[in-house]
Automatic annotation (TrEMBL), chains A, B:
Positions contributing to Zn(2+) binding: 92, 95, 132, 135
SUPFAM superfamilies associated with the record: Winged helix' DNA-binding domain (SSF46785)
Annotated protein name in UniProt: Transcriptional repressor
PANTHER family: HYDROGEN PEROXIDE SENSITIVE REPRESSOR, ZINC UPTAKE REGULATION PROTEIN
GO biological process annotation, one example: regulation of secondary metabolite biosynthetic process
Cofactor: Zn(2+)
Keywords of the record: DNA-binding, Metal-binding, Repressor, Transcription, Transcription regulation, Zinc
Pfam family, one: FUR
Signal peptide (from-to): none
Stored Gene3D superfamilies: 3.30.1490.190, Winged helix-like DNA-binding domain superfamily/Winged helix DNA-binding domain
Species of origin: Streptomyces roseolilacinus
Protein family: Belongs to the Fur family.
Gene Ontology terms for molecular function: DNA-binding transcription factor activity; transcription cis-regulatory region binding; zinc ion binding
Cofactor note: Binds 1 zinc ion per subunit.
Amino acid sequence: MSDLLERLRGRGWRMTAQRRVVAEVLDGDHVHLTADEVHARAAERLPEISRATVYNTLGELVSLGEILEVSTDRRAKRYDPNAHRPHHHLVCARCGAIRDVHPTGNPLSDLPDSERFGFAISDVEVTYRGVCPNCAGA
Amino acid sequence: MSDLLERLRGRGWRMTAQRRVVAEVLDGDHVHLTADEVHARAAERLPEISRATVYNTLGELVSLGEILEVSTDRRAKRYDPNAHRPHHHLVCARCGAIRDVHPTGNPLSDLPDSERFGFAISDVEVTYRGVCPNCAGA
DNA sequence: ATCTTACAATGGACATTGTCTAAGTCAAGC
DNA sequence: GCTTGACTTAGACAATGTCCATTGTAAGAT
């Protein structure tokens, strides 16, 4: 267990049983869970936790910069605990598995001024899609 | 009007009044409409057209490679008639406006083998986000 | 021109994901 | 141990999209 709970408490986050279990669910493996998956895992330990609370808590953690929202498909948003190192995503077109990746280079420098249309660009998001070894082997 | 309808007919697409108006709606300006916006514009000319038909027709046009689906936010998918020249998107973080952009370079070459995890990568999608001149001026 | 038939359109129910609200509950400070 | 404002809850609601059974029709065959 990392110091996520400590950091949150230090920021004046009111600590409730619900928030604790949500934070602990995310503070494990670097997988990319949906809100409902987080809710299911949280409910194993705190059966009465409501969906709304999970949604609220996830939204707060995103605002606090402790986790990232990832939308790689039209389905549910996923939550990425790896918020402290910039990265992009590699998604399996078959099974939807997501890996964090760290490309070299900066896509921003690939966009000439003439293609910026006066926008003040603040962020670039890159999603690689392909078939993972698991799905390809089948 | 381009030759979109001709191309579709040539591919054996059964031409109905509904499909014609949907194709014609898309065959105009290179804007990025949602399915419901397409439905609204189509209904101006064919008031009885149903939502399901618009969804079906858009899905078919995507399968045929005549238009592209774009998902730049968590809201509705948008449809991009500019399917014949590869491009990426620049999205206004305030108003959601979308522009097609053509970055130089190839993001694929920025992803070393060690970061591919055995995936057979087939596609890269780049989304630039920022504030458009309109929203910045306000 | 009419018939035939497979393919398309329709409307409405349903599914998924997420948001909102009013009322009850509780963590943390006094 | 109170008090209080923040938190949680259940369920209604919203937005987008999909599915299905029924009805309609485009286009080839006669």
